[in-house]
Amino acid sequence: MSKPQFFVTSGYGEKALELLNYSQAVKVDNRVEISGQGGWDDDFQIPISLEEEIEQAFRNVERTLKTAGAGWEHVIHVNSYHVGGFPPEVNETMTRLYRHYMPNHAPIWTQTGVEALGLPTMRIEIRVTAIIA
Fold first, then answer.
1. Start-to-end Cα distance in the chain
2. CA 107 to chain centre
3. Which of 15, 21, 74, 89 stands the most exposed, by the fewest C-beta atoms within 10 Å?
4. What distance in Å separates the CA atoms of residue 10 and residue 123, rounded to the nearest whole number?
């Protein structure tokens, strides 16, 4: 097993490292794990629309995976954490984005309802595992 390599996404990842002392991704051999990605911008602002927040979280996952040399095509497992339950737009948006970002495979997925996330306005956080073949 090789030594873990840690990665920091530019923008919000650099701010998170400075403020909270954590990295956005780690790679060991061909496995990449990322920390939970919210629907924030580089200033940690969250969209008002839940659909836009989910879309931004997917873009942040993509951005963080790229930082570690991976992409959505390598994702094998998704954990999504949701505040406020599961109104229809959650699964509709998540499914639409799965089909967009991963048109050639369907990873395993665990959804969890939670009381709160790292920022008071967050309603979703997405964490993935990727294997680079």
1. 16
2. 14
3. 21
4. 23
- 68 Ramachandran zone, left/alpha/beta (phi>0; psi -120 to 50): alpha
Nearest-5° angle of CA 1, CA 107, CA 53?
105
Please indicate whether residue 60 or residue 1 has the higher confidence score (pLDDT): 60
In this prediction, residue 133 carries a pLDDT of 85
Helix (H, G, I), strand (E, B) or coil at 63: helix
Map tokens 């997917």 to a residue: 58
Q: How much is the pLDDT for 1?
A: 77
Contact of 97 with 126, CB cutoff 8 Å? no
22 and 12 Cβ atoms separated by less than 8 Å? no
What is the value of pTM for the model shown?
0.96
The CA distance from 124 to 133, in Å, is 29
Rounded-to-integer distance, Cα 20 and Cα 111, Å: 25
Beta-ladder partners of 110 = 79
Q: What is the pLDDT of residues 67-100, one digit of tens each?
A: 999 999 999 999 999 999 999 999 999 999 999 9
Q: Bigger pLDDT: 69 or 1?
A: 69
